[in-house]
Each structure stands twice: as C-alpha cells, then as structure tokens.
Amino acid sequence: MDVLTAIKAVNTLVKLRGKDSDLVVDFYGGEPLLNLDTLFATVDYCRANQSKWKVKFHFLLATNGTLLTPNLAKRLLDKGVQIAVSIDGPKAVHDHNRPFAGQNGSFDTILANLKKMPRPVMKRLVGRTTVTPFFPDMVKLYEHLKSLGFERIEIFESEDACHKILPGQENSFFSSKANYSTLYKAYQKLALRYIDNVISKKLNYSKTFFNRFFKLMQRLYYNHEVSGGCPAAKGQIAVSIDGWIYPCTSFLGIDEFKLGHVNYGINRDKYRKFIKKTNKRFEHCRQDCQLFKLCRSTGSCLNVNYYFNGDCAVPHKKSCDLFREKLALACASLSILSEKIPNRLEKLFGFDPVGRRGNKLY
After folding, report:
1. 159: domain range?
2. For 181-189, which contacts have Cβ atoms below 8 Å and span 24 or more sequence positions?
3. Which ranges of the chain have pLDDT less than 50?
C-alpha cells in the first residue's frame, strides 16, 4: 500500500467514526514491516491531525518477527504502536506452521531478534500464538511464550475461513468432531491454569487477553453483552492495498463484499444491503438459542458463516458450540475467582473502553 492510499484510508475511518472518539488503526499483512515508509507516514499523519479531529488514535501491528530489530521495536513503541509477535510454539511447532518461502524454519531468526530486546521493550511486546491441531496444548504454548520473556500473551485457535483452505492445509484447522473435542479439553486446561495464575497474582488483564477468555469474563463481570455482535462494517472496516473497502480483513479480495473505495467513500446502497443481509442472522438464533442475549453474533464471525454456508446470515454450528464451551468455562472461572479473590476482581478486570491491545491499560 502506498502512503496516499493509507492516508485516504485514515480519512475514510475518520468520516465514518460517528460519535466514536477512540479509533484503532491496525497494520495488517502480509508483513507490515516490509513497508515502513507507509507505516510511519500513517502514524505521523494520524498524530498530526487527531487534535483537529478531536479523536485519539490507537495503533496495532501484527508481525512475524523476522524483521523486528530492537531499534525498530523501540521506535514503533515510542510512537504508540502496540506490537504482537506471532510465535506458534517451540521451534519444531513454529517451523512447521511458519516456514520461510524456501521451507526453512523461521523460529531461529525470530528468537535471535527477541534475545536482543532490552527488557523494557520486551515487556511491552505481545506474544501471539495461533493454535492448530498439530500442537493443540494451549497450556504448553502459554508457558512457552512466558519462557521467551513475554508478559503479555494472546492465544487463538486457527479459524478455517477467510480466503478458504487451500489443498494440503486441512490439517492446520480444527474441523472434525475429534478436533473440536481436543480443542474443548485444551480450553479446560487453559482455564484451570488461568485461575491458578490469577489467584497467585502472576496474571492480570493488563498482561493478557488469554484467548479472549479474559474479555469473556470481563463482560460477564460488568454484565455486558459478551460479544456485542460481529463488528464487521459496523465497528470496523478493512482497506486493501489498492484502496477497496471491505467489512473486515477476512473479506479482503472477495468482490461481492466491496463496500466502496477510499477515493469516493462507502457505497451507501451496498452498505445498506450488507447490513440488512447480515442482520438476518439474528432470525436464526433469537428463538432457538438460550445464549442469544449474551452472544448477539450467532457465535461465529460473518466470514466463517459465509465460507461454510454460503450465507453470512446462517450460523456455523461448530463455532456456536465452541463459543458455548468458552462461555461455560468463563462463567465457571469467574465464579471461582469471585469466591477466592472477591476483593481483587475490580482491579483484576479494570474497565477497558477500547477493548484491544491498544487500550489505555498499556
């Protein structure tokens, strides 16, 4: 993406913000660190204009870590860019998931960069793991990120959506009944480790989203909707390198979901049709699902619905079942913590209006 397109994307975001004053700009790839000129120009443009626009920008960046030197990391952090480094486990696991184009593993390159990080920089980085059926033990993955020096940790299961699974990639996603059973058990172990670490004061909200598990409990604690509904085209947009606007990054490149272009803004007719269509998903859940009032998003992202069912409005049952399992664990964990550390819950969760890595707790 060139600088002008990025600036137009920011202008589009500002025009669409409504009454929101906290805006998040997420640098997404590919590998964002291959395009430093556009990255830094975008941050500087936002900072230079946020007072005029009466907004506050938060910046997120996900990187594979191969280009993340200590000097670059400090430069980004000093500009307020929150950095998540993707590491999918110990060397054998990570190299299996994330080889270079020539098929050599990338783990050693990333580890060498991390070992050079000053401690104050390392403490501010986020270690991010994508869990696959190849190595589903979330507790071991969590402990591995801690052993590398990360204090802030995110763990997510791979989602079999976005741009469809290419031949040969099937084993990288949880799809079979046996896969999901394994995933449920992994979450149960993770919840137990989470409870133990919170009680022993080794873990709090400012250090991790813990599989978005912390967010589930936080919203239960504050009696909020657990998900608030999928934010695609409502609370977020995605802009492709050539300026096309989509509901979210998962829809990039799918022509039928183009909602406009940064040169002329949102096509209101396409936008209204998209919202009208996606709102129909509530019809599938309102009468049949006891969790609807908490979920409000059919338990699955709109792109997952589209990928499996050919329709954004038709829920993906396996995703709903997984959400139900996570919610049950979050309720059980919150109940235990309410009994064990009742006086620490408010400080533990802290209210986070932005809700992502860019929030004010950091």
Report:
1. 3-230+334-349
2. 182/133, 182/136, 183/131, 183/136, 183/157, 183/322, 184/322, 184/325, 186/131, 186/136, 186/137, 186/138, 186/139, 187/138, 187/211, 187/213, 187/325, 187/326, 187/329, 188/329, 189/137, 189/138, 189/139
3. 353-362
